[in-house]
Amino acid sequence: MRLTTKGRFAVTAMLDLALNEDVKPVTLAGISERQAISLSYLEQLFSRLRRQGLVTSVRGPGGGYRLGKPHAQISVSHIITAVDELIDATQCGGKEDCHSEGRCMTHDLWASLNNKILDYLSGVTLAELVENKRQTDAGNAVDNASEISFTPRKTCAAPLVAEEVTA
Fold this sequence. Notes:
The protein is mainly alpha-helical. The protein contains seven helices and two strands.
């Protein structure tokens, strides 16, 4: 699977925004400092997130960013695809030309994995990530991160990148 830093940083920045937007808009400089992500990289990511309606910008003194939708309406897959990140385990990018200009014999396996990953990430909302982070900070969550689990909920009406994962 190919999930690059772009997708990971976008999810991290959105979680930071969700955790800190209660009082006033959140600045990219604040996110940059808290999450050790380059300010110029955040500007690129937030430009894409804004175009997709996931964040709104507030201009002027005390300005910054706010979420463009309620936490429960933003899934991890929305965030990742908003920054042009594709979730693809196939070698061919879904084009079925991975083996001598033809389909490889494991194509269906990797395309199925794509669908399962996308379904999972579509079911994890920013609201769940916020709640989990707050519980962790309060000491109510399991210390071992590998034991933390999310119960995905279907929040998307349609697959976000169906053309890339079609077998």
